[in-house]
Amino acid sequence: MQIVLDSRGLQLSVRNKCFLIEAEKESRIIHPQRISSILITAPCRMSSPAIILAAESQIPVVICNTSGKPQARLWSPMFLNTSSLRRKQYLFTTHERSLVWAEEIIKQKIQGQTDNLVFVAGRKSSLNPEVEKAVDNIHIQLAKLHTAVATDNSVHKKQILFCEAYAAACYWQLVGTKLPLPFTFTNRVKREPADAFNACINYLYGMLRNQAETAVLSMGLDPALGVMHRDGYHMPSLVFDLMEPFRPVMDRILINAILQNQMPDDIIEVHDEKYRISKAGRKQLIGLFYEKLHSRMLYKGISTSLQNHLLTEVKLLTEIIKKV
What we know:
Blueprint: E1 2-5, E2 11-15, E3 18-22, E4 27-30, E5 37-40, E6 45-46, H1 48-56, E7 61-64, E8 70-74, H2 83-92, H3 96-123, H4 128-147, H5 153-178, H6 196-218, H7 237-243, H8 247-259, E9 268-271, E10 274-277, H9 279-293, E11 296-299, E12 302-305, H10 306-322
């Protein structure tokens, strides 16, 4: 289970080698073996013994802002592996095998996007012609990527990125204009969104990032040494790479919840002309995310939980890196 500290004034401390969560009128004791991670989304207090207990129990502690973006992370030193693996990881980022891996990751993402379009069309039969056309055009671009012969790594990378961008344009144009109000949108906005859908999907992506980063650190990889995403300050590019095939899973969670009227009416609040997800909205999104995280899903022909799929993808990448 994950502990979510989402109310101002909560206190997390230790009693009898267990975590003690205290509010004004109630308290709760939880054994560390029952906890997978601790997510903090509101101002609260966490004692130093609680931090140490989390580290000793290999429980990551993630502090997020109201948009779901991680602002700080605490993890156990046991997550760190030998330096030899990271040296090989550095070599891998410039090796041709890295782009073969990246191409497969992007293909999985695009397959997830086309599956989502078919899912939406199944709910609204009038969309079938538009969806069929978009899916056909995406498959044409995928075929070009498959048959293209790159002269060097930089050309190959540009081909992959173009194919991803083309698929995304087709995908978001259909999704954004066919959802019911107030979730329609015209553009995919990653920062400071001014609509409910983009605010909610950014929040879900933030939680997915937490899980992907935990998996990367647990295998001893450097989260900042990626392949497709650019390097930069505070940019865990490898984590972003590994998130790609699972982003459509987050999209499906939200699309399905919207179509089934599961999202609260007061999901968005406006503060200083900025859109923020309400507490009720965050609670709903967190619940939907963790239900999916521990539910079985089919990915690459294997049925297991989303959490296991993430870890397996990182393990497979680690084995590829070791062979460089």
